Amino acid sequence: MAMSDSAVLNAGERLALQCAVVKGGLPLSVSWSKDGQAIAPTTATTGPATATTTTSVRLVNEFTATLTIESLTGQHGGWYVCRAANEGGRAESAVHVVVQVPPFWVNQQPPADTVQTVSGHSVELKCHVHGVPTPQVIWSFTRDKTADKYTTLFANTNRTLLANQSLVISPVDVSDAGYYQCEASNGVGNNINALMALQVHAPPEVHLNQDYMAVRRGSLTGTVLKCSIRGDPPLNIHWRKDSVPLDPTQSRVVTRAQPATGSHPSSSLHPTLLTSELSVTNAAVADEGLYECAASNMHGEDSDAVFLQVQDVPQPPLDVRVASAAGRRIQLEWKPPAADGGNPLQEFIIFYQSSGGDVRQERIMASQFSGSIGNLQPATVYQVYMTASNALGQSQPSLGLTVTTDEEAPEGPPLQVGASSVHARGFTLSWAPPAHQLQHGIIQSYLVTIDSGRMLNRTVLPSSSNEYTMAGLRPNTNYHAYVQAVNNQGSGPASPSVSVKTSEAPPEEPPLNVACVSLNSQSLQITWQPPPADYRNGLLRGYRIFYEPLSELLYLSSPDQSDLQTGSSQTTTELTVFLSGLQKFANYSIQVLAFTGAGDGVKSQPLTCTTEEDIPEMPTRLKIVQSGPDSLTISWLPHPRPTSRVTHFTVYSKEIERGQDVNPQKWTAANSGPSAGRLEIRNLRPRRAVFYFQAAAVSSQAGEGPRSSTVSFTFNPTNKIVAAVVSIGSGYLVARGSRLILPCTALGDTPLQISWLQDGRQLSDWLNLNPLKLGEQIQQPWIQQRPHDPDDPDDPVDENATAGLIQVLTNGSLSIGQLSHNGGGNYTCQARNRHGQDQVDYWLTVVTPPPAPQLRFAASNWSSVTLQWASGSPSTDQSNRTRVSAARHYVIKYRPREAARWAQIVLPATWRSVPVGDLNCGTEYEFVLVASSRVGNSSSSNVVTAKTKGSPPEYLAADARDSDLTLTPTSCTVDLVRWQDRGCPIQQFIFRFRLATDSAGEWIIAGAESPPQQTFLLAGLIPGRDYAVRVTALNAAGSAQRDYSVRTPPLVDSHSKSDVHGGSLAPLFSDPRVAVPMAVSSLAIVLTIVTLLLRYRYRSGTDYLRPDSHPQTVGNANVRTYADGGDTPEDGNSSTLSACQKRPPPMDCSGRLSDYAPEQVSPYAVFPSLTSSGGKSQFSSSRRMKTFVVDGTKDSLSVEMSNYAPPAPSMIRRMHQQQAEEEPMYDYIAPCATASGPNPSGPNPSGRSNKLTSNPQSVFVPIIPARSTWNQQQQMYRQQHGPNQSSPHYHGDWNNQETLALSQRL
């Protein structure tokens, strides 16, 4: 047959392949090979081909060879290659032969004829066949072997077709019994099939008609227990009572077995059905029990049971309940039993037992349906149940009751308090509840106190907790811890204190001032200073120095060479170390860490150090080619690890004549430029000569290095220059994703062509080159290492993109733009012309990042999660095409589940677990792990989701008689002690309120406690009003809220009472002791206001426009005044606070700078009144002020509320100086007005318009500094009067109710 790319034949057919060389000079050598194995030609001595000869090759003539196979088998399939060669080169042609083979049984063994199994088991019907192409197997089934038609089987719930064509039935049922046929076909030859009989045996199946039967004691009729048994015979049937076999010879017990009607004993698909009966007559108490009917055969056993009850006692009392419970007594009520068992009731018996105590009883007459039990323990849980009794005995117990007596505060401390899991940053404190008899109630929580002498931490944990893990502690520190139990009545005594000393930890900071000095070409001296003392976390045991060379391109000197050089380390107790045996003239990365007994600390930042230069290493390889009729070109490969800066190379040559060295010469070749790495020697004498060459590298610092090995070359003057490749190949380790250029500098007569191949596969067409017109050449491969990060979306690497990024440059070099995982292997550049050919080989090994590690969750507590992982298993590559880089470190990335940004921790490569700390309590986190190497990062591991311990706050409901609220006519105090943090400390309480009648209105934020206190005062309420109060508790795990409905008590005084009863206020004002002080006070207030107006008006030279004291009805339609509660006062005076910003410098409502100077006070400001007592100024109110900001243009409640704050600093200073005669100074607040119209009084000195239109919906209050300012004033006062003194003018809260009332009076 003629040569073609492929041939498909059947087994037994003949094959003939003829190979003819159409061109090429003689002599020629023509040979055949199959799958890389040479086929020897058939010679005359061999004789003619016989029937037993598998393959024969005959040389027809000098340029034709024929390969023949008389009878094909499956083993003859493969690649057949014909190769022809002469002095000018070689050529080859290949054909792929496929031999089709009909189906046949593996090992020539068909499946078994019969397969037996048991119902409920699994069975595999094997049908192992082979053939080319792969046969297709079809299973079919029939119950009757003589049936003409089989049913084709497909996979379902109990049938599975395996990859090896076997049929698995699991579980097997009796209905699956029958005949199974497997038929194999592949379109070649005849089909084959096999028939298998599947026999399914049935184990016994036992069924009783019911599981409970009752018989009266002494009944003569008795009862019959019927048992049905199905299974393969023979069946062995027997009865048991309470697991004891029955004696069939007893007269009261009769057993018999008989075939049931409708059975099919002769059919394999219908197992035998039998019935067994047991008769119990004259039932006695001893006859009561569990009766079992059991059957067995050779395939298994089964049983079923029925409980037989003999009735002889009454039923238990009904509806037993607790009528009342006290600390020492429980009163019970019940109803009589539904049946007395046929005998009159004699008495009721109450059984009660505490946990761990003895069972006690109280007997009650049968005529009574109530009773009590006494002498109980308080705050104790009792289990109570009752029985009824008659002449035959007691009934079964009634439904149990769990009754708890009243509580008391615990009398005992928690037990078994101990510390475990002690580590550097914390420990776990565990305990057991107090003795049960000392708890006196339900333990609601535990109070854990941890004291270090400098830090005191108290944490409330739910009662379900029996341990607490403390985190964030200092290493190597002594702590004392104790626990208290808390119930609804209070806390109990503290447990004995536990002393714990945290262990050492690795240092948190690296060593300081890391420096290096180069001693010679192979030695470095590294120095450093210890880490800061506060971050050593224990006694420093020594230091570790990590160093590794920073090389980017490595030659493969042997197949077993490591992929990338790993670093080394040294350990020392000194502050300096000498590193020797290093690479010459190499950059090293240096890192130093300190370690304690607990482990290694943090590495210092990498420091790059360079060893000194040494004499250059000799070139590794030399190659000489004839580049012209009178010229030679020598090329060489520099040493892969330079030991100095090579400036040029020296080439030595000599000739050998009659055994003597003659004409020695020396040339200098540059180490840079287009001709770097090669030298052309011209003008050679036109005669045949043998040359010997050596090369040496030369450094300006260290001089000339050793010479390379001697390479000889025989020069023959000729005008026919054979194609030759000057470039020298080698092996290289290249990171995946790198860009590289492989050179192929070719010389020879034109036309000169080159072509590139990868593993024998041609990558490009032949490219014509002109050696005289080539551009810049490179002698060594150019590699740009590009580590890849698979998690970076902007840094993709297509595993199949290498071929698309390969191109041959115009100078013959091969450019690979992005090396993929599959890009490793042998790259060959072939050059040819009409005189011959040459080639150069490069071997590339692709270094890939480590595989993704496998991450898993190990443990968690309130502030940390412990993770464990295993490094990924790299795939092995025996061909040395790829290598996996070792991990240098791991990176843990984590974030809260709903967060977008990741935090990360860098871990040493030797670690396989880590506790990730400083996490939020009760929060779910996501974790991934990445392995990092010198060539990039691995893919991210599987995402692990874990949650720290802890839950949102919880309110523990109190007894109905207790209340969390304390009410006054104008305030409400909220008790917060019943809030439990459930493992996550409560960070803040937020308090809101609103009128109960305004259910659709917005909540008013009354304040927030952060950090939380035990109580909160909600002041400024209106007497006699209904309010809704909402308390929200927040911690790291979430929030919870509780709503209250409260009503403030009415405000009661003598004047209001007299007015209610029809009295008059006239006698009050007729009393001169009342009238005179009121008149004087009113006059003083009026004079003070007038004086202030005149003084500030003339001082500033600014005209003020007083707001209209009688605003229009329209303007006041939406104005409401709220007294810390959002309600409208009944006196009808309406006022709101301005929405202007209270910040200097003064600004008007439009945001522009106001015309008021900072020291000026608005004529409409509201001041707390001052009274003089003993020559010292005092505030008339002992409560701190609270201000509101209300939107007066909308019919809505208050939208903003300022914080509580103490009096102004200027007022405090004046009181300290005892200047009561002067008015107090206030911080400025601008009136809410807008500039409009021309200034009627003319221009003012500042040149700005000060015409203001007042806002009739504004009331102004003084700005009170925040608490921080008050603390500064307190410190100033203590400096003047002593460290233990406090300012007498500050008495806690300022009541905003009084402030608003004062503003209305003004």
- Sheet-strand content, in percent, reads 35-45%
What is the end-to-end distance? Answer: 123 Å
Shape: flat
Count, helices: 7
Please give the share of residues in helix.
under 10%
Low-confidence stretches: 44-53, 260-268, 553-564, 799-804, 1054-1068, 1100-1271, 1286-1306
Mean pLDDT: 76
Radius of gyration: 51 Å
How many beta-strand runs?
95
Q: Return the structural class.
A: mainly beta
- Main β sheet profile: 8 strands, mixed
Descriptive report:
The chain is mainly beta and 1306 residues long. 6% of the residues lie in helices and 42% in strands. A hairpin with a 2-residue loop joins strand 52 and strand 53 (631-637). The protein is flat. The strands form 25 sheets. Strands 46, 61, 64, 65, 66, 70, 71 and 74 form an eight-stranded mixed sheet that branches. Strands 1, 3, 4, 7, 8 and 11 form a six-stranded mixed sheet that branches. It has a five-stranded mixed sheet with strand order 9-17-16-12-13, with no helix packed on it.
Keywords:
single chain; 1306 residues; mainly beta; eight-stranded mixed β-sheet; six-stranded mixed β-sheet; 95 strands; disordered C terminus; repeat; transmembrane helix; cell adhesion; disulfide bond; immunoglobulin domain
Topology:
Elements: E1 6-10, E2 15-20, E3 29-34, E4 37-39, E5 56-61, E6 64-69, E7 78-86, E8 89-105, E9 114-118, E10 123-125, E11 129-132, E12 136-142, E13 151-152, E14 159-161, E15 167-169, E16 178-185, E17 192-201, E18 205-208, E19 212-216, E20 223-231, E21 236-241, E22 244-245, E23 253-259, E24 272-280, E25 289-297, E26 300-311, E27 318-325, E28 330-335, E29 347-354, E30 360-365, E31 370-373, E32 381-390, E33 393-394, E34 401-404, E35 415-423, E36 426-432, H1 436-439, E37 445-451, E38 456-462, E39 467-470, E40 478-487, E41 490-491, E42 498-501, E43 512-520, E44 523-529, E45 542-549, E46 554-555, E47 568-572, E48 576-579, E49 587-596, E50 599-600, E51 607-610, E52 621-628, E53 631-637, E54 646-657, E55 660-670, E56 678-681, E57 689-699, E58 703-704, E59 711-715, E60 724-725, E61 731-735, E62 739-742, E63 746-747, E64 752-758, E65 761-762, E66 767-769, E67 782-784, E68 806-808, E69 814-816, E70 825-833, E71 836-848, E72 854-860, E73 865-870, E74 882-884, E75 889-896, E76 903-908, E77 913-916, E78 924-933, E79 936-937, ...
Parallel strand pairs: 1-8, 9-17, 19-26, 61-71, 71-74
Antiparallel strand pairs: 2-6, 3-4, 3-7, 5-6, 7-8, 8-11, 10-15, 12-13, 12-16, 14-15, 16-17, 18-20, 20-24, 21-22, 21-25, 23-24, 25-26, 27-28, 28-31, 29-30, 29-32, 32-33, 32-34, 35-36, 36-39, 37-38, 37-40, 40-41, 40-42, 43-44, 44-48, 45-47, 45-49, 46-61, 49-50, 49-51, 52-53, 53-56, 54-55, 54-57, ...
